[in-house]
Amino acid sequence: MANVAVVAHARKSFGGGLPELRKVLADEGVADPHWYEVRKSKRAPDCARRALEQGADLIFVWGGDGTVQRCIDALAGTGAVMAILPAGTANLLATNLGIPAGDVAAAVRVGLHGRRRPLDTGTVNGEHFAVMAGAGFDARMIAGADRAMKARLGRVAYLYAGARNLSVRPAKATVEVDGERFFKGRVSCVLAGNVGKVIGGIEAFAGAQPDDGLLELGVVTAKNLAEWARAFGKLAVGRAGQSPFVEVTRGRKFRIEFAGKLPYELDGGARGKLRKMRIEVKPRSITVCVPSDRV
Fold it and tell me: How far apart are CA 99 and CA 92, in angstroms?
């Protein structure tokens, strides 16, 4: 039996809540795991590190995308195995990996009995992400969908916040991919992805695999409502690269410089503002429990 720890965002609800999680774990023979509760996701990494120090080799993470991302940042490269208990609004990584939401017992079984899958992560200026990292429109959308709005509207909160930012003036940017210039001009959004589906279940990067040693990159140049509508039309059918307002590539290292500071996000979590993004893939740096029938 693995040495199990739980890092839980206490303000997140999932199934029957944390009491149900304790019961399910006990029924599975895990009666006394290392247990850590936090009320803010930024405190989760310290708990994950303490769990490692106490000998845990399987760490359940109960929370939304922010909690999962921060624990991945703490655990990447350590050899620890992470099991996701998706308790957020979007649950981006869990959705891409087929981890069930809404059923505590099913998610726990994936953690205890599922397949261990090594995944790539990316880093932005040294901080790890597993799903996506972006600057510009997506970061403004995520920042605009605050906790109260998400509690009231669910995923629709992102659409509402996004609509309010479609007319923001694009920013000048230079983008290099693996040492070669890829783009220079005005951008509304720059998005790096490790998986196919991003916010809202949109297939932004068709064919992306989180263990191929590469990251996807999309540059969006849409500057008004009509151009955004055409870009979203292609995104909706998984053909982003066919839009005249989207340029897509893939690589191992991206360097992006903006003329002024732009807001950015990691795995759906809003950050501050920056002028330079150094994005790099870290192959097979985190191991996550996935359903046994997933490729």
Answer: 10
